[in-house]
Specification:
1156 residues, alpha/beta, nine-stranded mixed sheet, 33 strands
Length: 1156
């Protein structure tokens, strides 16, 4: 049955029911009864009405015929937007309710919001929501869904061949297809770089040039020789990454054939994001003999003898048993951990299933120690740097570890763990050990680099002086050109004066003849010659020529005056330059500059030679190492440098890209150990082709059928599989959230130690806490990158984090979210102190990490999306959403906090979903807090004080909360607008003439000072009742806005409400800035952190918009002009994709985002 009364409030339902009962309108009574079934929040209030409807419907059964002469007609049809919903509504109430309807999403019930206080005396009350448990009675929630897979096959290999092919061949062809797919999409990783300098090559020599660019962003996931596009100002250059420095001052060296100058401005590097896949494909293709043609620059030119035979056995778990008498009896390990070590020596392939907190790292450390005692060479690798760090750190901390002290344990790549970096840099990092061994070379290198830097500075001064001489030459040349121009103009003027004199003589002669012939003189010649009239005409023609020549002479004189002025200016500049250069000899300066350049080049060559020797030391260190720890990516990229190993251990293997796991395994001669948890994150493979995802996106536990055996607890499980079943990280209450759903209740908690408790502060000693934000009507929206954000949730997280730090600064706190855009918003509204103390990241970045207190932000809230993301709706343990939630929860040691819009989640979470079960347990076992209580921990007064706001700017007392209502918001907004320096961007879900008229004068004052203003508003047809009932007035309003010089971008159904003022001020909330709300619960909050404006503008931009670097750029239009009539366009989105239509309904012009 369709919910025809979804738009009615509870109060309207109560008023309508008696009228339907009186009319015996049974069909509409059934529809009303059906609607009441969805109104859980207002169930108590609607109970009497429901009972009355049931009695009336019962009477229908007893008396099935309607009263004679009465046809059943709907007494109140489905209300349309702007329609009257009661027979005689109060005008004031009607106006408010119409607007309320317009501001709700089609999928949202009005009962989500409190009823409007008609007296408008203050905010209506609204309480926290209760999540309902899964079960047969939960019938009003959506069904779980997953995208329908699309199988498109693999190019170059048939389906039958694919089944019979080796995994290496499958990888090769699947990688080839994935690379093509990514290149068609045209995406790439973008890295902002600081101003760079030329470190090798020069403009005269041509050929390759190497530029060094400092960076302040993450670069650990890129690698040398990757193709890049370098964008500096308006220049674009293709090149490759020639070197990466991951030290304290990270930098990237780019090799390019294009000369960009000795110094460059800041810019951006776009890394070809197929580079890693290309390297993998080439590595496998070379080993299989499939690579065609000559090797590419920097590529592998020959096979390095990888053990593909053993790697193939790993994929099918075709293990072999080994006779080994060793029995582990390590007192620091539990029974299941010791049992695994035994199995690792008894099999050439072994699997360690280690759920979170079960001591995988400690177990692997003990295994590595025994392998070292046997003098066997071991590679330990993982998908993330953090996981590798933790294993190396655990092993390094073993008492009197002789292997570490001798520099035989190497951490290759960027070190993320602070303890490993601080305590063991010289002992385990490749740079630290090589630096120690090559201290003399490093000292010499640093000395030469210092001398080169001094010389470069001196040379810059010499080049500046030399440039001044060139400038002097140019000025003198310009002066000579002026002199030539002066002579030309003067000559032309003189020539024209001579012409005028000749014309005057001719004119006088003609005038005499004219006088003679006018009086009948001139004799016979006067009779046959020109008439007086003809002579007069000739005289007038000469006078005209003279006048024209006079004008030309005036023009020459003007030009001569201009030339004289320019020359005087040049003389002044020349004299200044001569004075500056008087003490310099040009030949000497040129000679010194050339010699300096030669010396700098010699220094650079010497530095390169020293670096080569240091690199050789690094290779010696690698060759001598008995344990090497690095990432899977670096393993296949550096495979030829690493050599072969007796053992390969892959930790957190469930996240490892299968071809990388395969390559790493093929470096082993004896044993492969796979460690991880298949109930945690799987590899990331963004292909739309399920055929590719089945090969590259599968995890090693599923491919080898280990996961299936473990989940089903089969009696004949492989003998090479071990499960660690005791966890030491999480408090039992936290562990019990995941153990039943993800681990069939097999994961137990160790109770041997007290794990501490936060005994003071807002969490009130609760292990499990939910902060319900539904009391504040948050809104989540999709960003231009396809991610999601929810600024209000981010504000809750920020204020909570600050409070928790104050409560116990010794607790390690983390903020975790499924969406990268939400992490960016959180960081944008956080100050430096908070960012230093709180690790904010996505769930993927938290893999392998742990925190005393973890804040998990679900982000989802009321939105224009009909359903929740896959991350939240998982109903079985093998779903990626369930794995993601499992990782997030299991990062928490002592306290777990959810930030959630319980009202929205309760309506949209499927029955039996993992998240519903988790939230219900937290609700019953822990604490549920009203989000408003957390938001108000930091008042708006404190936030405003971060900017130039003064209390005297408004005539009311600021509330003791973080939010302001409509009456308070607009005076504060206008105060901010008055102080704007660069730009103002307003995002509003609705606009009305009344608010526009009020705001335009305020905006006009700052626009006259050069401030740029942009409105992002709905299209006229989606602008509520105003747009539908008064379309012409709506068009006139938009036209009037544009006439004031304001940029207007219209989007069909925009839901965001925000104001961005310059780079560092943002307002956000539930109030439309360009409309009158009348709803007492609408509110706004503000942030004054550096860069918040840029972040909000970026997150609210369209997906097709290129990244802009300044707030003024974001204030420019995003929508293109109509290709047919050049008018503005409207952004629209349908199930077929995104597009722009002309704002003029009579024009059929459209723009495709791809063309745009």
């Amino acid at each position: 049955m369709k919910r025809i009364y979804i738009k009615l409030s509870a109060k309207e339902i109560i008023e309508l029911a008696p009228k339907l009962i009186k009319k015996n309108d049974y069909s509409n009574l059934e529809a009303l009864e059906y609607e009441i079934g969805f109104r859980k929040k207002a169930a108590k209030k609607l109970a009497p009405t429901l009972e009355a409807i049931k009695i009336a419907l019962k009477n229908k059964k007893d008396n099935p015929t309607s009263p004679s002469g009465q046809d059943e007609q709907p007494a109140s049809p489905k209300p349309t937007r702007g329609s009257k919903r009661t027979e005689e509504p109060n005008k004031k109430t009607e106006q408010i309710e119409q607007l309320t309807l317009e501001e709700q999403d089609d999928e949202i019930d009005l009962d989500l919001l409190p009823e409007i206080n008609e007296d408008n005396k203050g905010p209506a009350t609204i309480g926290i929501h209760a999540i309902r448990p899964s079960g047969p009675d939960l019938t009003d929630t959506p069904q779980s869904w997953e995208p329908k897979p699309k199988f498109s096959g693999i190019t170059g290999i048939s389906e039958e061949e694919l089944k019979d092919s080796s995994w290496a061949r499958k990888f090769y062809f699947a990688l080839n297809d994935l690379i093509r797919e990514i290149k068609r999409s045209g995406s790439g990783k973008s890295i902002d770089v600081l101003p760079g300098k030329l470190i090798e090559g020069n403009n005269d020599e041509g050929g390759s040039h190497i530029y060094l660019f400092p960076v302040n962003t993450s670069i650990e996931d890129i690698f040398e020789n990757a193709k890049v596009t370098l964008r500096i100002d308006n220049s674009k250059a293709e090149g490759r990454i020639s070197a990466i420095n991951l030290g304290k001052n990270p930098s990237i060296a780019i090799s390019t054939d294009q000369y960009l100058g000795d110094r460059t401005g800041k810019g951006r590097i776009i890394v070809d994001n197929t580079a890693n896949y290309e390297a993998l494909k080439e590595k496998i293709g070379t080993e299989l003999g499939l690579t065609k043609g000559k090797p590419k620059e920097g590529s592998i030119d020959s096979s390095i003898g990888l053990n593909f035979e053993l790697a193939e056995k790993l994929m099918s778990n075709s293990f072999e048993s080994c006779i080994d008498s060793f029995r582990s009896n390590n007192k620091n390990l539990n029974e299941s951990q010791n049992e695994f070590i035994n199995k690792a020596f008894q099999h050439n392939i072994s699997f360690l299933w280690g759920p979170p907190g079960t001591g995988k790292t400690q177990t692997l450390s003990a295994l590595i120690e025994e392998l070292c005692n046997r003098n066997e060479r071991t590679l330990i690798c993982s998908n993330t740097n953090m996981a590798v760090d933790q294993v190396i750190l655990k092993f390094a901390r073993e008492e009197d570890n002789i292997h570490v002290n001798q520099g035989k344990v190497i951490r290759l790549g960027k070190v993320h763990n602070d303890d490993l970096k601080t305590d063991y840099f010289e002992k385990v990092t490749i740079d630290g050990i090589a630096e120690k061994r090559g201290s003399e070379l490093n000292t010499k290198k640093n000395k030469i680099m210092s001398e080169r830097e001094v010389l470069q500075k001196d040379n810059e001064e010499l080049l500046r002086i030399d440039q001044s001489f060139v400038q002097l030459d140019n000025l003198k040349q310009e002066q000579q050109q002026l002199k030539n121009a002066f002579n030309t103009e003067q000559s032309s003027a003189k020539s024209k004066r001579d012409q005028i004199e000749n014309l005057k003589v001719e004119e006088n002669d003609l005038y005499k003849k004219y006088e003679e012939r006018k009086n009948g003189g001139g004799g016979l010649r006067g009779f046959f010659g020109r008439t007086p009239e003809q002579l007069l005409s000739n005289i007038q023609s000469i006078q005209a020529q003279s006048s024209q020549l006079e004008q030309q002479i005036v023009s020459h004189r003007t030009k001569i005056k201009s030339i004289i002025t320019q020359n005087e200016s040049l003389i002044e500049k020349i004299e200044v330059l001569k004075g500056q250069l008087s003490s310099y000899s040009r030949p000497q300066i040129s000679d010194r500059a050339n010699r300096a350049q030669e010396k700098i080049k010699a220094f650079s060559l010497e530095i390169q030679e020293l670096e080569q020797k240091i690199e050789e030391i690094k290779q010696v260190v690698i060759d001598e190492a008995i344990v090497i720890g690095t990432t899977l990516a670096k393993t296949h990229l550096k495979a030829s440098d690493l050599g072969n190993f007796d053992n390969v251990i892959i930790d957190e293997a469930s996240m490892g890209l299968l071809p990388e796991v395969y390559i790493a395994s093929s470096l082993s001669k004896k044993r492969i150990v796979i460690s991880g948890d298949f109930s945690q994150l799987s590899p990331i493979c963004s292909s739309k082709n399920e055929s590719i995802k089945n090969i590259l996106g599968a995890n090693i536990f599923d491919v080898s059928h280990i996961a299936e055996s473990a989940r089903n607890k089969v009696s004949n499980a492989p003998s090479n599989l071990s499960m660690l079943d005791i966890q030491y990280r999480m408090h039992q209450d936290i562990c019990e959230l995941i153990s039943p759903f993800m681990y069939n209740d097999r994961l137990k908690t160790d109770f041997s130690k007290d794990d501490g408790l936060l005994v003071k502060g807002i969490l009130e000693s609760s292990r499990l806490t939910i902060i319900d934000t539904s009391t504040m009507n948050p809104f989540s929206s999709q960003t231009n990158t396809g991610s999601k954000d929810n600024p209000l949730n981010a504000l809750v997280a920020r204020n909570l984090s600050k409070s928790l730090i104050d409560s116990n600064p010794n607790f390690k706190i983390g903020y975790c979210t499924p969406f990268a855009a939400q992490r960016k918003i959180f960081n944008a509204i956080s100050d430096d102190k908070l960012k230093k103390n709180i690790q904010a990241g996505t769930v993927h970045s938290y893999q392998g990490d742990e925190k005393d207190i973890l804040i998990y932000d679900t982000v989802e809230a009321i939105s224009n999306s009909r359903s929740l993301g896959l991350f939240l709706i998982a109903t079985h343990e093998n779903a990626e959403g369930a794995k993601l939630l499992n990782v997030a929860i299991s990062r928490a040691k002592k306290h777990l906090v959810f930030i959630a819009d319980l009202s929205t989640l309760d309506k949209k979470l499927p029955n039996n979903s993992f998240l519903r079960n988790v939230l219900y347990q937290c609700q019953n076992k822990g604490l549920v807090l009203d989000g408003r209580k957390v938001v108000d921990l930091e008042t708006i007064s404190k936030e405003l004080s971060k900017s130039n706001f003064q209390p005297s700017m408004v005539d009311f007392d600021l509330p003791n909360s973080a939010m302001v209502n409509e009456d308070q918001f607009f005076p504060l907004l206008y105060a901010d607008i008055t102080n704007a320096k660069e730009s103002i961007i307003i995002y509003s879900g609705f606009f009305t003439p009344k608010r526009i008229d009020e705001m335009l004068p305020v905006l006009g004052k700052v626009m006259s000072k050069g401030v740029v203003v942009r409105f992002v508003i709905p299209s006229n047809d989606t602008n509520g009742s105003f747009g539908k009932q008064q379309p012409e007035a709506c068009e006139r309003t938009v036209k009037a806005i544009r006439q004031k010089g304001i940029v207007v971008d219209q989007r069909a159904r925009i839901h965001q409400k925000a104001v961005v003022i310059d780079s560092d001020i943002a307002w956000s909330g539930s109030l439309n800035p360009l409309s009158f709300g009348g709803k007492t619960l609408e509110s706004m909050w503000t942030s004054r952190e550096k860069g918040i404006g840029l972040q909000i503008a970026e997150s609210l931009s369209l997906k097709i918009t290129s990244k802009r670097n300044s707030i003024k750029d974001w204030a420019k239009a995003e929508n293109p002009d109509c290709p047919k009539c050049n008018k503005a366009t409207i952004y629209r989105k349908s199930r077929f994709g995104e597009y722009f239509t002309c704002e003029d309904n009579s024009c059929d012009g459209k723009v495709s985002p791809k063309r745009y």
